[in-house]
Amino acid sequence: MVLFISDLHLHPSRPAAAALFRGFLAGPARSADTLWILGDLFEYWAGDDDDDPFNAAVCAELRALADGGTRICFICGNRDFLIGRGFAETAQTTLAEEPQVVDLDGQATLLLHGDTLCTDDTAYQTFRATVRTADFRRDFLAKPLAERKAFIGDLRQRSESEKQVKPAAIMDTNAQAVAAAFRRHGVARMIHGHTHRQARHGLSVDGRACERWVLGDWRDDAGNYLECSRDGWAFRPWTGRR
Ligand code: MN
What we know:
This protein is of the alpha/beta class. It is 35% helix and 24% strand. α1 runs parallel beside α2.
């Protein structure tokens, strides 16, 4: 069985969401062969050298799951794209390149965070192109931690206020970008998060039946995951705390 989650946006200011996640790792995740985290596990990630005890606790919980025999794979999101090898080692998690094609019960499936599909938000795509270069990453991570956190704090504030004025359609996936991704990777199924619009979409690309599974985000009182087993695929709610 393979489980998929994304968009937990874990942050010290939301202890209830962190408790839900703890319960998930100690509960359903333990019976999974593989847990895929498709990005935005954290509200932000300032660098692997951030010694915030909140991050350390989450990493330790992931590690405990891995020690129990569940493989954890991670595709970073737009919030936690600065996650690196230090995190991977501490959390016993495998960092996967995005996009990623995996075999799920014999069917090739495309995995991605989902922000690259939101091409109508041109301002975001321009920003993304800048911050996802090796040069930006190197230069930014070389700055003192406090400076990085201040910069991220500004960004988060700006993003919150922009979200209030950006039309909802701009923040969703673009149909042509979705079709292009199916074509480019030659798959008939994809899973992504980012838009917080949990759904299973059936669509036709060049006459071929395709499926797009969109993961939901986690709130303080409810999480969710996609369960993929030989018996089928299903979204499951999660409300168990620990
Ligand atoms: Mn996202």
